[in-house]
Amino acid sequence: MARYKNEIQSLLSVLFPEFTQVKASPCRATALALLKLSPGAQAFTAAGVETIANKLHELAPRNYGMKTAQQLVTLAQQSTSSGLASSARSTSLKLLCDQLEHTQVNLAQLEGEIDTLLASDKEAKGLQSVPEFGDKTVAVLRAELGDVKRFHRADQVVAYAGLDIEVKESGKWKGQAKLSKRGSGRLRRILYMAVVRCIRLKDSAFGAYYHRLVARGMKGREAMMAVMRKMLTVAYRLLRTEEMYDPTKGCAGAVLQPPAVEAQHLHTPSSAKLVVIGA
């Protein structure tokens, strides 16, 4: 959607740059319909005021009418558009508007299906009780983790998400400790966004944990990774126990405690060594 919007705005800046003086956002429903009808200043001029006014009345009779149509056509007649390759660019603009509309419809349908699934999923209730987890975060955690009973320990879930620490070694050479990133990229992305939100919240246990780590000297990025692991551990425990989240006890206890550093040797190739921090 972002790519389509950027391309639409880029084409519009050549075909009809004055359009945004009337319609500030060219990617809203009414603007998209107008651009599909008249993709460019020349097309608006050719269509005329009456045609544009009728389309506006059809799309949003309470908000737009003859006055808006007159403004658009007047601007089109005085437009600074170059007119170069206008036919090809107009076709591209119409196609992009159509693709954006279809994508928006499909996205709305998918989000509706996700909401329906979450409403009927008993195992998701515990995740939904975590204030820092929005619907999309819950959906990704639930879908990517699946049946958590296949994990016997929390560190296995951390490794599955690629949030475990990897130190590559070969003979006397020893590399820097980095995230392995071998697991689900979707889990890492959604947890990262959740951390970005929670560190700005005053009443978030995860946010408080982050700020304590930074106050102790940990770099911001490292502290964010530690909070992501804590979030994942809490999610795992809620799914296994089917309990509700309580920031004062239970699963949240692990979040509120100082970070423990523990090295565990997992089953990995001989050239690699994995260390789980704060698992």
Describe this structure as you would to a colleague.
The protein is mainly α. It folds into two domains: 113 residues, no CATH class; 152 residues, no CATH class. Helices cover 58% and strands 6% of the residues. A three-stranded antiparallel beta sheet has the order 2-1-3, with no helix packed on it. A hairpin with a 2-residue loop joins β1 and β2. α7 runs antiparallel to α9 and α10 runs antiparallel to α11. The longest helix is centred in the middle third of the chain and has 34 residues. The protein is elongated and about 70 Å long. The two termini are 37 Å apart.
- Element order: H for helix, E for strand: HHHHHHHHEEHHHHE
Number of strands: 3
How confident is the prediction overall: mean pLDDT? 83
Q: Report how far apart the termini are.
A: 37 Å
Major sheet attributes: 3 strands, antiparallel
Give the helix proportion (percent range).
Answer: 55-70%
Instruction: Enumerate the spans where pLDDT stays under 50 for 5 or more consecutive residues.
Output: 250-279
Quickly count the domains.
2
Enumerate the strands of the largest sheet in spatial order, edge to edge or round the barrel: 2-1-3
Structural class category: mainly alpha
Strand content: 5-15%
Query: How many helices in DSSP terms?
Result: 12
Q: Report the radius of gyration as a whole number of Å.
A: 26 Å
What does the overall shape look like? elongated
